[in-house]
Design brief:
Largest sheet: 3 strands, antiparallel
Protein name: Transcriptional repressor NrdR
Strand content: 15-25%
Distance between the termini: 50 Å
Number of domains: 2
Radius of gyration: 19 Å
Order of helices and strands: EEEEEHHEHHHH
InterPro entries: ATP-cone_dom, NrdR-like_N, RNR_NrdR-like
Structural class: alpha+beta
Cofactor: Zn(2+)
Family: Belongs to the NrdR family.
Number of helices: 6
Function: Negatively regulates transcription of bacterial ribonucleotide reductase nrd genes and operons by binding to NrdR-boxes.
Length: 162
């Protein structure tokens, strides 16, 4: 494994252990050239996935990009990182087990919306605002009006707490 600090290819694994949800192996590594320490994760990849963007362009699936998108929606929300990681791992497993190698980006957005709806109502609305391309305040109002059940009531409860 190449050192991210100096580019040296001679690194040593100092510690390996499974992640808490057993979906990856976490490895602590040490660079023999610069002494840098870094962590890598090894995950099972069932198949190569290609995402079909709304403009028709095809790009390789990037789990890290999915995680970044979810973390942006979850920023400053009281949700443990482990729960976010489990949600993202679940989405990836669902995508890989669909049997398709090409997946529309809208499908990923739908799966993220499903996951966020049970994780955090505010993050759900944040993600929806980007996913559904909200342009004006009325777009938020219409979306919030569509919400019903526990998610809608939890958003209203948070609003009343302020």
């Amino acid at each position: 494994m190449r050192c991210p600090y100096c580019g040296n290819e001679d690194t040593q694994v100092k510690d390996s252990r499974p992640t808490e949800d057993n979906t990856a192996i976490r490895r602590r590594r040490f660079c023999t050239a610069c002494g840098g320490r870094f962590t890598t994760f090894e995950r099972v990849q069932l198949r190569e996935l290609t995402i079909i963007k709304t403009n028709g362009r095809r790009v390789p699936f990037d789990r890290d990009k999915l995680m970044r998108s979810v973390q942006i929606a979850m920023r400053k929300r009281p949700v443990e990182q482990e729960r976010i990681e489990r949600m993202v791992s679940g989405i990836v497993r669902r995508l890989e087990s669909m049997g398709e190698s090409e997946i529309p980006s809208a499908m990923i957005g739908k799966l993220v919306m499903e996951g966020l709806s049970s994780l955090d109502a505010v993050a759900y609305v944040r993600f929806a605002s980007v996913y559904r391309n909200f342009r004006e305040a009325k777009d938020f109002e219409e979306f919030l009006g569509e919400l019903s059940g526990p998610l809608g009531s939890s958003l209203r409860d948070e609003d009343e707490d302020r």
